Amino acid sequence: ESGEKDYSLKKRVSRAIEREEKALIAEVLNKVNWNRRKASEILGVSYRSLLYKIKEYKINEMNS
């Protein structure tokens, strides 16, 4: 990469959404003591979707 800043609005918005989603998932998981079923209900996503996001974002009890 040439070191030029990425001015693609779509990419920047996507990254911002991912950061917020990761932070929210970690916050809710901590609030419910890592009860993933309860967290999925609070977040309004399926249990499987939550498990996928936890893996995708590499969220664990140590780094959340």
What spatial form do the alpha-carbon principal axes imply? Answer: elongated
Mean pLDDT: 93
Question: Termini distance?
Answer: 31 Å
Discrete helix count: 3
Rg on CA atoms, Å: 14 Å
Helix content: 55-70%
- The helix/strand series, from N terminus to C terminus, equals HHH
Main beta sheet, described?
Answer: none
The computed structural class is mainly alpha
Number of strands: 0
**What oligomeric assembly is this protein in?**
single chain
Q: How much strand? A: under 5%
Unreliable segments of 5+ consecutive residues: none
What does this structure look like?
With 64 residues, the chain is mostly helical. The protein has a domain at 34-64. It contains 3 helices and no strands. It has helices at 9-31, 36-43, 47-56. Helix 1 (9-31) packs across helix 2 and helix 2 crosses helix 3. The longest helix is centred in the N-terminal third of the chain and has 23 residues, at 9-31.
